[in-house]
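User: Before I run my own analysis I want an independent prediction to cross-check against. Here's the chain; please return only the structure tokens and, at the end, one sentence I can use as a sanity check.
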Amino acid sequence: MAVLGSGPAGFYTAYKVMQGIDNAKVDMYEYLPVPFGLVRYGVAPDHPEVKNCQDKFTEVASAPGFTFIGNINVGQDVALKSLTDRYDAIVFAYGASKDRKLKIPGEDQVNGIYSARDFVGWYNGLPEFSRLAPQLDLGDTAVVIGQGNVALDVARILLKDVDSLRSTDITDQALATLAKSKVKRVRVVGRRGPMQVSFTIKEVRELMKLPSVAFEPINRQLIPSNIPSLPRTAKRLTKLLMEGSTNQYTHVEKKWALNFLLSPVRFLSASSTTRSQLRSIEFARTKLIGSDPFDSAAQVEVTTDHQHISTPLAFRSIGYQSEALPGMSELGIHFDTKRGIITNDYYGRLLSLTHGAHIEEPLPGMYCAGWVKRGPAGVIANTMEDSFATAEAIIADWKDRAPFLGGGDGWDTLKMEVAAKGAHTVSWKDWLRIDAAEKARGKAVGKEREKFTNPHDMLNVLK
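Assistant: Structure tokens:
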């Protein structure tokens, strides 16, 4: 079985399949020289406990029958068709490599607007964003558009005492930039109300407890009066929002707010010149519609009333998006560009799509897991459950003797084709050497690790 992607979805699927099918062999392909995907590059550096799943992934990778092939771009270094000729099954678990855009005026023309995904990748050392260089010293206010967990991660990193991050695996360049930051106030803005937010209790509680940071009280009219009768999760979240932070708003310099019922209209720059600096964001006020405005699924409609928020710094945090891999369509794999997922039967079996919108039978031996299967939502525990479901479908199909791909020797024969193209692949033993080098670099400066932010530096460790 080939698994494309070495994040939680890939590892959890591999783990379950290797448990459920005797003598299963798994080859895991990763486009970076290093494994773990979102765990390494998406989890905030001050949340080390969330990264503990890497221990389980290392255990999986150390098992007989497992092969890690890093620094290989499927679709470029090796064609998808080459995989179908050499495996019984392929699992697409490569996550979401893009972020959703607002598609409003100024978004691509004004300086000071960043993707939250890019920003998170930058402070976590993701190579493609190592040169992001966010300007955090242009003013005291930052606006985050979106009210999910990633949005709160951005707010927390901007407001947290930089010294509390120095022992984490955040990059040195991020520490240097954050140390010069002038941001004292962060507004986290959403289109709907407090009863429709998508962040979790854990994330907002952590922000509420930040030392020397205060929360701006929210409008009581946006909260239902019958808090005790709300469902358990909604009740806990509502109480937390109403109680606010432990610091008094007027007694501290750093502050944050949740601003509701605002839909971004356009970004305004300081001048009409090309690529000038962000000056403010224009929002349209929205209003909740439907019989119950406090329902978690309640929608909004845009009004003609507008509001401006002055800021030189904005982060777009409205979700991630997966992309199709080169060669998918030639194999009959349908990628739903609107939803950003591979068309599947919910259990992870890929479905062919022919004759317009008519969905045919599952594609033999083709599966998906994680965000590319269900969309970019939820935490790692959700991905684990989802990946186990895909693995169970694979196991059931194998035991039921359902049609699979043609089989073959997998990486044992494919590596010769890849080597002929001059690709330098990375094995699990190679990764362990890179891992040790990063930890040594970190130990020298009092950190858990200092990540390499350039693939060339990672590969130089192996020379």
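Sanity check: The mean pLDDT is 94.
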